[in-house]
Every structure is written in C-alpha cells, then in structure tokens.
Amino acid sequence: MAEIPETDKKTAIKAAIKRRKEVYTPVKPDMQLGFIHHNVDCIGCRACEIACKDKNGLPPGPRFRRVLYVEGGKYPDVYAYKINLSCNHCAEPACLPTCPTGAIFKRQKDGIVDIDSTLCIGCRRCEGACPYGAPQYDPEDHLVKKCNLCVDEIDAGRKPYCVMACMMRVLDVGPIDKLLKGEWATPALGPNETPVRAIKNFADPELTNPSMAFVPHSKGKVE
Amino acid sequence: MNSNAPFDFLRDRLNLSRRTFLKTSASAAALGASGLLELKTAKEAKAFAYEPYPRDDDLTTVVTSCAHNCGSRHALVAHKKGDVIVRLSTDDGRYQRDGVFGKDTFEEPQLRACLRGRSYRQRLYSAERLLYPMMRVGERGQGRFKRVSWDTALGFVAEKMIELKGKYGPTALLDQSYAGASYGVLHKSDQIEGLLARFLGMFGCRTSSWSVPSYQGTTFSSRMTFGTIEDGNEDDTFAHSKLIIMWGWNPAYTFHGGNTFYYMRLAKQRGCKFVLIDPQYTDSAAAYDAWWIPIKPNTDAAMMAGMAYYIFSNNLHDQSFIDRFCLGMDAGTMPDWAKDQENFKDYILGKYDNQPKTPQWAAQICDVKAEDIEKLAKLYATTKPAALKASWAPGRNAYGEQYNRMAAALQAMTGNIGVLGGCAEGVGKAWHSEAVAYPYDQNANIWYAAIKSDRWAHCVLNYPNVKREEIGLWPRNDQLDGVIPNIRGIFWQGSDWFNQLTNINKEIQAIKKLDLVVCMDSTITPSGLWADVLFPVATHFERHDVALPWYKGHYYIHRPKVIEPMGESKTDFQIFTELAYRLGYGPAFNPRATRDYFNRDDEVDEAYLIDWWQHKVMAHQGVTMSWDEFKAHGIYKFILARPHVAFQDQIEQGMPFQTPSGKIEIFSTQLAQIKDWTKTQYGYPIPAIPKWVEPWEYAHSTKIKDFPYHLVSPHPRWRTHSIFNNCTWLRETYEQELTVNADDAKRLGIQTGDTVEVWNERGRVVAPAYVTERCMPGVMALHEGAWMDLDDKGVDRSGNPDFLTLDEPSPAGAFAYNTVLVNVKKTELTHRPGWDKLATARSHVFRRDQ
Predict the structure, then answer these.
(1) Residue B248 Ramachandran class (φ > 0 left, ψ -120 to 50 alpha, else beta)
(2) Is any Cβ of chain B less than 8 angstroms from the Cβ of A80?
(3) Structural contact between residues B557 and B535, judged by C-beta atoms closer than 8 angstroms
(4) Which of B25, B90, B579, B707 shows a CA-CA span of 20 to 30 A to A191?
C-alpha cells in the first residue's frame, strides 16, 4: 500500500477535526479517566485481554483489549515491546458522531465512552471510524461493543478488570491529565520515567485526543 | 414471522424524523456522515441498559484458586449467581487479614491469576468436560466410547486390577499420575506420593515412574550438590539482586512463582542488570532490557565451563568461600579418601584431558563469542550480589544434569550462595509449605518397580528382553531388585502423559499391547482418547481443598466447593476410596471416611482440612488465625521474619549442608563411590564432578546434514502444558507456531503464516510458521502441549513436538526434550490448532515489524 505523505496526513487530520467541530461538541467531562501502559516492562502475557473477555462474556472474535507486539532490528541486535490498547475514551471520540441512534455516549462524570446495546443496531460505522480498533463487532449478538472502562467497577469504587489483572502492574487507570504529567501515583510508572501521548504504530493523538499515556520503548518514541 | 419485523425494530431504535441537524449533547442524536439521515432518539443512552448484567456486588463472591502444575498457583475469585459462576476475578487485596481493595505491598503482594486462570470458565464449562463414566468400544485409540454407570466402570476396573495382579505380579500396573489437576493439600495428584500412589501401593501392584519430566536433571544436581531441592530463594529476594542471569529462563512465559517477575521488575527499577542466555530473544529479554546471549541448545555446560576457566585463571573466585564450604572445587578441598580423583578446577584447567576449557574452546561448541563468555564471567564474578538462575529447560537435554551441576559450581565459586540477592538454584524450592492433608503414612509410596518415566514404552515393547539400565530401574534391597517390570496397564490421574512424554509414535506402538488403560480427568484429553475407561473428575471448583504455592510465594488459598460437581463427576479421592472398598482396603485407604464417601464428601473433607490447619499449619508455622477465620478471608499470606534465602544459616552460622560431607559437593561423595552403574537407577556413569559431555544429537552431530535445525520445545504461555488447549480465548490469542530465524526462513522460502512440516526419523508434525529476527539461526522453537491430532498418514496436524523427541533420558533421568534435530519445509497440509473449529488465532494481525 502506498505511503501517504506526512503533509497530506496532517492536512487530512486537520480537515477531519474541523468538520467534526462543526457538527459535534464533545462532552467536556468533570474529570477524564484514561489508561497508562508501560510498553517495555509489559511481558505481553495477555491476562488483561482474557480478564476482559471473561467479564464481558465475549465469544471468540471480539477483543476489547488488544496487546500489539512490536519487534524490530536484525539478529542479534533485536528489540521488542508491547502496546496495550482497549478504548481510549477519547476527548473527541471519532465513534460517537457516527452513531445513527445515539447509542454511543460520553459520561459527564469521568469521560467514559460507552455503547448502549439496547440502542445499537450493529451498523458498524463506529468500528470504521475509530483509529484504534476499539469498537468490536460481536458476531453472536450482531451488535458492536467495546471497552467501557468497566464502568460498573468504577462506580463501585474499584478499577477495571484489565488493570486488576495485570501481573506486572504495568497497566493502570487514573485522571489522564495527572497521569501524563507523572503526578498520579501508579505502579505502571517507574521512577525517573516520563509518560508520553504519542508513540509509533499508534494514530496521531491530534485526531481524537485519546485519554492514553504510554511509557515508551526507545524505538517506539515519536519526536 | 412478520415481514415488517426488521423495520419495526429499526423504527423503534431510530425514531426517524426530518428535523434539521443540531449540535449535540450526550443524550441527543448524532449526525450521519452524509448528512442525509437526521435522527433523534428519545431514549437516553446508558451503560448496561440491557438486562441482565449483574454487577460484581450483586453476585456471590467466593474466593478460590487455580489448580495446575504451572509454576505458580494464584487466586481466582468466583462471582456466582445460584450455582453458576458468572465471571472470575482475582486477588485485589481484600481477601486477607486487614485486607482492603487495592492493597498490594512488597510483603503482601496480590496473588493475581494469569491468562490461563482467567480463562477458567471456558475450561470449567467446556464441551470437553467428562460428565459421566465411559468405556471404550472399538480399538484402543479410536476415541470411541459408550456411557456406562459408575458401578459398571468401577466394577470393571476393580476386576481387571485383580486379574492383572494375579497373572502378572506386583509390577503390572504403571502409575503415571502427575500434578496436572489436583494440586491441593487434600486432593493430591502427584507423581510420587499422591492419591494414586497410595491407592496402587496399598493394592499391592505398582510400578512407579520416578523421573520428573520438568526437571529431573536439575533435581539430581540439587540433591548431589546441596543435598536438597530446597535450594531456592523466595520471590521477593529477587528484588535485591544487582545482576540477574536468566539462563534458559523465560519468567515472562513460565511463571516461577506468579510474582517473581514482578519482583524482578522492582529490581530493574533499582538498577539491576539482566542477562538472558537462550536461543530466542524472549519476552523476558525484552521486558528486562537484557543483554541477550544466543546460545546453541544443549551446549550450556560448555559455556559455563568456559566461564569457570576465566574466573579461575583471573583469580576472580572466592577462595575463602570455596575453602569453607565446598568439597572438591579444587585440589585443596578434595576429601582425603579421594585425593587421587579428579577435582573440578583441575578438570577445567585441562590437567586430566589436556583440554583446558577456555572460553575459546567453549565458543566453538556453543556459538557464543569467547569475548562474550569472558565478559559475562567477569560480570558475574565481580557483581555482588548476583543471581545466576540456571533454570530447567537446558537441563531437559542429553546429559542435562551436567549443566545444572556446572551452574552450581559457578554459583559456589563466586560466593553467591546463601546471600540475599544471590541464587543457588537448581530446583529452587523455597518456603516450606505444609503440603499434606490427605492420609499419609507408611503406605504413601509403596512400589515394586520404579523406572525412568519415559522408558515405559521401551519396557513394554521389549519385555522381557530389557536390561535394567535401559529403563533406569531403581534398586531395591530385596529379591525384586533388578526384576524388570511386566507392565500390563496404566493409570492416568491428573496426567496427559501420553501426549506429553517423548517419542509419541513409540508410545502408540506400546500402548496397543496393554490390557488396561484408565484415565481420570475432568476433560477429555489426547491421553483419554487412548483409554479403556474414562472416569469424570470434578474440577477444583467442585471440591473442597486448600491451595498452596506451586513453587515460590508464601501463602495458602482456601478452595471451597464453589459449585456442585457437574454431571456425575466425582473427586479422585472419592473414586479411589470407592475402588479401595471394592478391593478390600477402603477404611485403611481413607481412614476418616465410610463407604458413603462416594456420595457425600463434605464432612470428611472438612475433617481432613481442619486437622491439617490446626495440627500442621497452626502447630508448625506459627499461625494463630483459626480455620474459620481463614475460610472467611480466603487467603492467608505469610509475612516472613526474614527474607527466605536458601542456605543462609549454612553460610552465616556454619550449619552443615545436607550432603554426606556437610559441604557443597562439587565433587559428589555419592557418585564417586558408585562402582557398578548398572545396579543404580542411573544405569550409566555420571562423573563425580561437573563435566561437559557431548550430546548425542546437537549442532555438531553428523546428523545435522539431514536434519539441519535444532528444535527446542519450551513451555507455552497460553496453556499449562496441554491443559487449556481447548479454550478458544487462549487459542485465538496465540498460535501453535514454529519459530524460525529470518535468514533460515528466507533460504527455506517460508514467511510468517505459511504452514510447514517439521520432521525427523521419529515423526512428522505440521505447524504454522512465525519468522523472526528474535531467534538464532539453526534453531527453531515449537511449544509443547498441543493436543495431538494424527491424520490418516500418521502426520500430526496439531504441531506437537513430542512426535519428534527421543525417549533417551540422561543417566540422571533428565528428559531430553530439547535434544532434537529436525528438518523443515513448506507444506500444503493444513494445521489443526484444536479439536474444535472455533478459534483462529489472530496473533499475527497484532504484530508489527519496524
């Protein structure tokens, strides 16, 4: 597939953002929850993926949480790391304005983006719009579903299943502004480590303003 | 059906209107991209609008654990509605004394379950569950069974047992139990001394399988060198190391304790450096940013010898430690009675064979550059404290015990034994748990013959023309010594050994000759397909027990009966008790029970467990919490008075080691005194000091002409050996791939996603290929445990590497799983990842090369 020139990409993103601002004013939540993930210390075990599948009763197929393996170099100078994504509960979610029934909504309280399955008709436009693959089509129910940040656990004063499943403690949730500044106490962030918003193999955060922080691998950094 | 139904459905949801578009808020509508469809819904969207979605707090919470032989054993918390487990979570800090949500400290970490434990509902409620007893119809191995009553199945087995013992004697029944299903303090399936051992031993007919597939070479080394397999430090001690050398260790895959890799992360944050010696750049190498040293499989002892040479000849060894604690490390520490025998240092320096074991000499064997060997040796010898974790995989090789013995010599010569942050492992058992709640007495391990576990097929196929050393027959002090067992039947409890031992094609020939094969398990397994009788066993969710750590960690987890046994399944203990009654020794087998135990086990199990808690845990381990309080919490976490470091008292206070000499025996007293090796369980000579012994199949064999690639078969992360292979959530997350180096793949014309055949003279398997730079050339990896699936030409389509391994254990009994040469080619044959057709792995979609 031909590489799209950087300038065209940036122009396209700007245009998309402008158009979206014309038709859609995103909810400005009181506090925005987001995830943080340590791309290096993550061992890629996928306990988070499975915990999420179990909690959400998913069949084989849809995966609300997805661990991406990145590897590079040439033997024996190789490297590898992981990018762990579910839904980024974006400040300007691309999915929300595409939904014809209003099934997708963003919570005022904490910015969680969720899909109301009683309103969803399974048209899958949100699936196409999301740059991260968060909405997933469930072939058994013919609906689209995605990570809802375990909103029931959040409301009970706890944390999402994926965070509580992580055996290396490299995944956590918290107020995204504090997480990005390194002002939120979390085992996901080691001493002397700085989280970033943008990494390689991850869509330009300007697109949808995802609530996601990474501790990047040196080869995954974006200047 | 009303033809308007779809439109009614849509109309209810869409609530069409022709109003002009508006800027929206969360509860109003959104604009379609084309602007043509303008909608507003009257209903406000909300979370979990569909019913029922029970919240965790609406469900009944029951703390339990996982149960398999995986290297860990952490908490699973069942959330039930009625008698159905709706979902599982794990320890989050609440389920212990002074527990609160989120409590996760250095002393009391959460015991989080792994990806396999989290998928347990898929196993618990799988279509593969055995729900009633079955007996074979048709040929053995066809997998055709008919349902029978318990009475019929038990009666058949009891009768057959009496018949076989009568005709063939006390060695006729082979015990092939393992730790797969039942590792708790009560419902114990264990290779040597579990419930099956008690049952067959008391019946008076038992051939025992004495070598442990996972680590026999390592066990041998630990016993000879330190006199014990409790040569391990607890998981939290790893946080104190300045250097951790992961030799053939992939803690990111095979959890040696479920928090060990987390403590290693803390070590990394404190500045610890990591080295990884492995043919693959594993996830452990990546997560710890390790210096990767690719090494040819089965050459580890040579590289270590090269390191020893460097350390000795540069005077970097700790002579004071050697003088005080070691036997036979050098001439000065040899015992008086063996002054003329070889000592380790002079062997390394080449005094006996004129071959100094220099780094240059080692480099030619192991393909690691001499300067890297020297650099590592210097790093290890000069960093204090340093942990050389010589893990078990390189010991699963021809002469695998030499690798572990060599590692122990390095650990000793650098003085990293008995110190916090050091490491003397070996097997690595650490904190001592009270492991026995089941009846345990002089009947625990009665055997009439004991053989190296993967030589049973050889024994059956060649009986009676079998020499004792060919099967590693354990010596006895009576007239049965040296008597070759006449194996006519096999019992599998918590064991899928038919799928898991070496040289499956040979096993298939052998099993056809047997008169009785009994398989007890909660699901059908590849072994089960070859059985005559299938007993359905209740899973650990369906019986009362207490879990203990498999390996590292210091805790107990209460395991109540979370749900009633499914179908007609019973526990192993119930099955054995009932059979014992039919065979005449029921009360002695299960002293607390009556005949009614088969129908009702709650009171008896509670009695065993409360006795264990009070008279072992409370009495011996300083625990003051009552049994009832333990049950109410769910988890008991020990806070140790001091970090558990193996041999600390030996090093600090001069307590003797549990060896004949009281020292760390680099020169083994026992081995040096053996005259006739054929009269021992080893069968063949083992040097008294660690030595490089050339394997019979490796990179420098002549066989490499026809079989140019060395295949290793590591433990998978998405199964516990073969357990969980039927869980589609796990199978869609990982592929049963053959890992191939990129340059090798180019030459072979293979790309990621291609299907390949892998073969040698033992068998042929099919697997998808994963091409990567993360594997050294000439070496390939295929994870063990895939459920074998033979096609009509005898090719295994599942990709099970044990069709390629050889049943040639080392003298010490080490399984030579990783001593395999193969050839590879692209194929048109299809790969069958599982017996069902549900899940296709999408892992290759989630890889990026940059």
Answers:
(1) left
(2) yes
(3) no
(4) B90
Question: What is the spatial distance between Cα B722 and Cα B727, in angstroms, rounded to a whole number?
Answer: 11
- The rounded distance, in Å, linking the Cα atoms of B232 and B432 is 10
Helices (H), ranges, B90-134: 115-118, 120-124
| Residues in chain A where the model's pLDDT stays below 70 | 1-4, 23
Scan residues 31-60 of A and list those with Cβ closer than 8 Å to B: 40-47, 49-51, 53-55, 57, 60
Q: What are the chain A neighbours of B261 within 8 Å (beta carbons)?
A: 43, 167-168
Q: Per the CB < 8 Å rule, is B45 touching A119? A: yes
Domain A6-220 has CATH 3.40.50.2300: no
* Contact predicate A209/A92, CB 8 Å: yes
Cα distance between residue B47 and residue B28, in whole Å: 15
Residue B300: Cβ within 10 Å count: 29
State the pLDDT at residue B190: 87
pLDDT single digits (tens) B382-399 = 999 999 999 999 999 999
Whether the Cβ atoms of residue B788 and residue B796 lie closer than 8 Å to each other:
yes
Number of C-beta neighbours around residue B787 at 10 A = 25
Q: Which residues are within 8 A (CB) of B415 and not within 5 positions of it... i.e. 6 or more apart?
A: B318, B320, B321, B422
CA dist., res. B275 & res. B292, Å (int): 6
| pLDDT at A9 (0 to 100) | 75
Residues of B in contact with A78 (CB under 8 A): 281, 292, 773-774
Give me the residues of chain B with pLDDT under 70, please. Answer: 1-43, 51, 182, 837-850
ipTM: 0.94
Task: Give the pLDDT score at B687.
Answer: 98
Give chain B's length.
850
Residue from B119, B103, B105 nearest B70 by CA:
B119
- Residues of chain B contacting residue A158, judged by C-beta atoms under 8 Å apart: 56, 92, 101
B112 and A75: CB-CB below 8 Å? no
Q: Say what the pTM is.
A: 0.93
- Can you read off the two tokens belonging to residue A57? 């009763």
d(CA A165, CA B69) in angstroms, rounded, equals: 20
Residue A14 pLDDT? 83
pLDDT of the residue at B5: 65
Q: Which residues pair with B277 in a beta bridge?
A: B247, B293
Q: What are phi and psi of B662, to 5 degrees?
A: 80, 0
CB < 8 Å to B43, chain A = 102, 118-119
With vertex at residue B561, the alpha carbon angle to CA B559 and CA B562, rounded to the nearest 5 degrees, is 90
Q: What angle do CA B536, B135, B456 make, to 5 degrees?
A: 85
pLDDT of residue B25: 37
Distance (Å) from the C-alpha of residue B673 to the closest C-alpha of chain A?
45
Chain A residue at shortest CA distance from B26: A105
Instruction: Answer yes or no: are the C-beta atoms of B815 and B747 closer than 8 Å.
Output: no
Q: Which two tokens stand for residue B357?
A: 């074991």
Instruction: Indicate yes or no: CB of A78 within 8 angstroms of CB of B774.
Output: yes
Q: What is the DSSP letter of A199?
A: B
- Six-digit token string for B417: 């034994």
State which residue of chain B sits closest to A112, comparing Cα positions: B47
Among candidates B92, B119, B850 on the partner chain, residue whose Cβ is nearest the Cβ of A72: B850
Contacts of B289 in chain A (CB under 8 A): 40
| A1 has a chain B CB within 8 A of its CB | no
Q: B547 near B557, Cβ under 8 Å?
A: yes
Burial of B116 (0-12, 13-18, 19+ CB in 10 A): buried
State the residue for tokens 């029931």. A152
> Does the beta-carbon distance from B39 to A47 stay under 8 Å?
no
A45 neighbourhood in chain B, CB within 8 Å? 114-115, 252, 283, 717
Q: Does A171 touch chain B (CB under 8 A)?
A: no
Is there a contact between B280 and B296 (Cβ–Cβ < 8 Å)? no
